[in-house]
Amino acid sequence: MVQAAHGRSGGITINAFVLKRMYTIIVMIAGSLLVAAGFNLFLVPHQLLSGGVSGIAMMAGYIIGGNIGVLYLVLNIPLLIWGWFAAGHRFIYWSMFSVAASTLFLQLIPVKELASDIVLGSVFGGLLIGLGTGLLLRFGGSSGGFDIVASIATRKRDLPVGMLIFILNAAVIAVLVLFTKNWNSALYSLVSIFSAGKIVDLIHVRHHKLTAFIVTTKTDELLAKLLTHPRGITIIQTRGAFSSATHDMLMTVRTKYELSELCKAVKQVDPRAFINIVETVGVIGDFYRPKE
C-alpha cells in the first residue's frame, strides 16, 4: 500500500514536471516565432534593424548579402558558448533553444512586406519582437545576443546594463549610417528598437535590479542551492501575525535576467515558499558575493 502510494505520488510529480517542461517549450517556440515574424514580415522588407546581434546580422545581410537567419545563428554561437561557462546553464540552455528555433522560423517565414508604410513596419515589427523577447525572458531564456552579454556583465560587475545595451545598439545603428548614408533607415530602426524595449518592459520587468524577499521553512536547503550563485543573501527572522509561527526570510538582490532562475530554484526546494519581488532603484555597496 505504501509503495503504491509512493508510486502514484512519483507519477504525479513526474507528470507535473513533464507538463511544465512542455508548457515552457511551447512558450519558447511561440516567442521565437514572434521574433522571426517581426524580422521577416516588418523589418527586413524595409531594410530596418532590430537591436542586438540580430541587428548586426541584418546589417551584414543588407551590406554584404547572405542569409540573415544563418548570420544570426553564427553570430550567436560564440556568445552562447561564452555564456555557458560564465552565466547560468539553465538560462543559456533555453537561449540556445530559442536561437535555434528563431533561426528555423527565419528560414520558414518568407520575407514579405505586410506593411507598405515604413513607420508601421518599424512600430509593429518592434512590437512583435518585443512580445517574443519578453516571453523568452519571462520563462528563463532569451533571444541571444546582447541579452547574454548583459547577463554575464551583471554577474561580474554592477554595471548600468540599460546604458550598456543602448551603447551597443547605438553602435550598430551608427555603422548602418556609415555604410548606407541613410538616416531615415537608422531613425526608423531606433523606433523599432524603442517599441521592442517598451513591450519587453511590460511583459517582463521594468527594472534591471529587483529585491526578492523569500519566506521559507527550509532555510538550510535553500541556502545550499542559492549560495552557488554569486549574489549575497541576508537572513531575517520573522513571525507570522496570525499563526505566531517563526520563519526565516531570505533577502537577495538580483537582476531581471536572473529572476526566473531564482524563482524556479526556490520552488524546487520549497514549493510552499512565499516570494515577494520589489523593484530596486539603486544598490550601494557590493552587488555580488565575494569569493571565499
Structure characteristics:
about 290 residues, alpha+beta, Alpha-Beta Plaits, 4-stranded antiparallel β-sheet, 10 helices, 4 strands, about 65% helix, elongated, disordered N terminus
What do you see in this structure?
The chain has helices at residues 2-43, 52-64, 68-86, 89-108, 118-138, 146-156, 161-180, 183-203, 219-226, 256-269, and strands at 209-216, 234-239, 246-255, 274-279. The protein has 292 residues and is of the alpha+beta class. A four-stranded antiparallel β-sheet has the order 2-3-1-4. It is elongated and about 65 Å long. The termini are far apart.
Compact overview of the structure:
The chain is α+β, with helices and mostly antiparallel strands. The protein has 10 helices and 4 strands.
Secondary structure: helix percent: 55-70%
* Sequence of strands across the biggest β-sheet: 2-3-1-4
Main sheet properties: 4 strands, antiparallel
Mean pLDDT: 82
Please tally the β strands and state the result: 4
The helix-strand sequence is: HHHHHHHHEHEEHE
The percentage of residues in β strands lies in 5-15%
Structural class category? alpha+beta
Distance between the termini: 49 Å
Unreliable parts: 1-10
Give the number of domains: 2
Shape: elongated
Query: What integer value in Å does the Rg equal?
Result: 21 Å
Number of helices: 10
